[in-house]
Amino acid sequence: MKEVVVISGKGGTGKTTITAALAYHLQDRCIVADCDVDAADMHLIFSNKTVESRKFYSGKEAVINRELCKNCGICQEKCRFDAIKSLSNYKKVDPFACEGCGLCYHLCPYGAIGMVDRYVGDFFISDIRTNTKMAHAKLLPGGENSGKLVVEVKNEAKRLATELNKEYVIVDGSPGIGCPVIASLSGTDLALLVTEPTMSAMHDLKRVVELLQKFQIPTACIINKSDLNKEILVELREFLKKNDILLLTEFNYNRNFIYAVKSGQAINEYDPFYTKETIADVWDKLEIMLKK
Fold it and tell me: What does the alpha-carbon distance between residue 188 and residue 172 come to, in Å, rounded to a whole number?
């Protein structure tokens, strides 16, 4: 079983669109993993039927027992995150402000504060219409430790691939170079970059390439909306060549990419005449890289 992670230095380059296109091309040969847990959207393209779900807990948060609280104010005075609020005759913790440090727990003279596991998101396994399964998750607003949730999604996707004898795991990673991206890339066989010829995309592409080089991960690239800026396009091509990154293909700006997402379809499903053969060719090149 081989794993391909699709990432981008910035959001909006078409990363999820390309991931969905590859997954649609492979059909039941792959397991899909949506590791963009902060803004999961792969389920919008693949009509999914949830077959398993569970809550995800990570870190701790303080909870005050109203019956034991004497409203002394020590916890509120010492909390550097201003997470403890005064009510009529007791204190209450603001879960969005609480960092789970435990200082209030140790300082409370009445034992009124406890530290509990923090509920930060939900994990799902779903059946999707390409006759395979998808592992995905949703991080709650203000939820932390998204990297751990990404690891949960990836581990489940690999387990499903092994259990169901699938050849590939296709992963939709997060944009940027932060913790979720590093978690997405951990243990992968190949990284596929999706970028565009804009100044911000060029800047962020350089950062993510530096990250990939540190991990020594084989890398290929697709340039989306390649007709946006011809000068930056030339710069992009030169940068990829200089860093020995295979440029698989380029797509000009096309509104059908937008219409495909709005219709809940992969681009090679919505507009097969424009993209089907190109996506098939992209995958053939990726497969050659995976076999090296």
Answer: 12
What does the alpha-carbon distance between residue 52 and residue 77 come to, in Å, rounded to a whole number? 44
Domain count of the fold of the chain: 2
Which positions ≥6 away from 178 have C-beta within 8 Å?
none
97 CB neighbour count, 10 Å cutoff: 14
The mean-pLDDT minimum among 58-67, 84-93, 125-134 falls in 84-93
Same domain, yes or no: 17 and 68 = no
- pLDDT value of position 196: 95
Among 33, 45, 41, which residue's Cα sits nearest to residue 151?
A: 33
Cβ pair 198, 226 in contact under 8 A: no
Of how many residues is the chain composed? 292
For residues 204 and 260, membership in a common domain is answered with yes
**pTM for this prediction:** 0.89
Domain co-membership, 63 together with 17: no
Read off the pLDDT of each residue in 24-29 and give the average, rounded to a whole number. Answer: 97
Q: What pLDDT is recorded for position 41? A: 87
